Amino acid sequence: MSIALWSQCLARLEDELSPQQYNTWIRPLQAEMVDNTLRLLSPNRFVQDWVTQRFRERIVEMLNQMSEAEPPQLVFEVGSIAPAVPQPAAAPAVPEPAPVTAAQLQQTMKKNSQQARTNPLFSFNNFVEGKSNQLARAASMQVAENPGTAYNPLFIYGGVGLGKTHLMHAVGNMIMERQPGAKVIYLHSERFVADMVKALQHNAINEFKRYYRSVDALLIDDIQFFAGKERSQEEFFHTFNALLEGQRQVILTCDRYPKEVNGLEERLKSRFGWGLTVAIEPPELETRVAILMSKAVQADVDLPHEVAFFIAKRIRSNIRELEGALRRVIANAHFTGRPITLDFAKEALRDLLALQAKLVTIENIQKTVAEYYKIRVADLLSKRRNRSIARPRQIAMALAKELTNHSLPEIGDAFGGRDHTTVMHACKKVVELKESDQMISEDYANLLRILTT
Amino acid sequence: MSPHIPSQLPLRIGLRDGATFANFFPGQNAPVCHTLQQGREPFVYLWGGVGSGKSHLLQAACHAVSEQGGTAIYLPLAEPEGLLPQMLEGMEQMSLVCVDDLQAIAGDQEWEQALFHLYNRLRDGGNRLIAAADAPPASLGLGLVDLLSRFGWGPVYQLQPPGDEEKSAALRLRAANRGMEMPPEVAAYLMSRAPRDMHALFALLERLDEISLAAQRKLTIPFVRELIQ
Predict the structure, then answer these.
(1) Is A67 on the interface with B (CB under 8 A)?
(2) Is the entire prediction scored with pTM above 0.95?
(3) Is the reported ipTM for this assembly greater than 0.85?
């Protein structure tokens, strides 16, 4: 019995169902024919239930009509056949109610460890260093050279898309390079939670503990997703302590300073501070250009400096978007076969850039700055000159100069009819303050991010 | 209405418009189509208004993956039947996951987290995601910035809505794929008389196909005029 029968069913279903129904419920199914049993595999229980309820009867009917001999038995299951595309993460799902033995769970854990490897593409070599990430990079390097003893844990925090994950993988890769056979595990916090839940369900929490406490280095990404998950935090707390006691390295990343994560236990927060906590800031222009140039080299594409400069000047929020824009330009270049020039890039990114220009208006900047400092927009436009108003006003003006194409007289005008020399003074002042006042420098960076993300 | 098709009506076999690349008139959206057909970008984000071809392209991408022996799923998030975030469990084993109408779940914390985690799992496993919405990522109103930045990681394309000429070309392409010949003047006639959004035009084409087949007539202006009046 071959799978041809199922192909016939598919053709018929495709004709009977709307394209949407077909693409949502039938297309994801994988079929396997064993001993005259047709196994239809769904990616999850949800799909399986739906397909069984809505289509089972019709499929059986078709099989009966089309089979020349005995029609096959129809079985619905959750899972997948050996994948057609290389994909290390595809573990066949375990049917929920079936009891799982400790041995089986160990198997799953072993499989997980194969998946939980660091990504070799992320190394120190292709990490572009700049003022914004210097400290984090240096600390990571130290940890990679002296795992378990330099800084433990290493806690890297910063906004999205700034390279936290890259650094983390780079450390893991370097540890394994210097110490072949070291057990280095990288995973997203969600996986830790999911694994624990699975272990609890299957009464195998001891295997879970043993597994996570046996590693040489544990790298957990985005720990803010532990927030509110008390049982996971508890489990993690003990794992964490065990690893630290055994001088095994722990590296964590988070989108904010550990103390600021709501829903995280105090004892965890305080332990995160035992090692070293470093921040990654959004990259400045020069670094953004360097990142683009480096990505272009990796993609084997000739990217003129002025084009990199053009993209970097306009996309400032994070590295992911920078990369997204570059990918867009490269895709268009491959499609048209034309070289990447400034005009070409402008054309390729037209909609993306129009969008940014549209989004950032002086009005928008005033509103955002006022909200940020908890003052009123009217205050920004007023004649008041006390510092609590004047500073935000100057910052808003500097942002307007940086983010819009309005002339200085226009900007002055928009701030309660001020002179363009006032705007010039404000911009100069903000540049100075950013250098001398850490607080202002952070505020400015935050506002930039809010306005451009 | 009976689910069984009475014998005097033309058989419906093969008449449904396939949501494939071959059945999509690329027009100004040729670069997007190219990127999607190549299938090399792990993450692509499409946005555009109603009738700009988002759903068609997503389903075409699913179709293409199946043809190559991979697995794919299309998830229309705005469906009234309502998918749940749990629907994303285990989806990382698909070679391609297409999520349509993202705007329908923007702001929903559970959905956003589920998508974010799926995104990471797909990435770890080397599989692909194509997302589509009526607005660019930054205007969706997403609460989870982690998800927002991930949508910007791959190329973000705005689908350009078709102009009249492209609409008429798309109509003729579909007609040809259905085995009908639609002369340019008939297409032009339809464009000037019928509703001009793509969904309505394609629905009209389906009707024209059935009726002309049943009546054994070719598509001419007088015949079409009779029908749309």
Answers:
(1) no
(2) no
(3) no
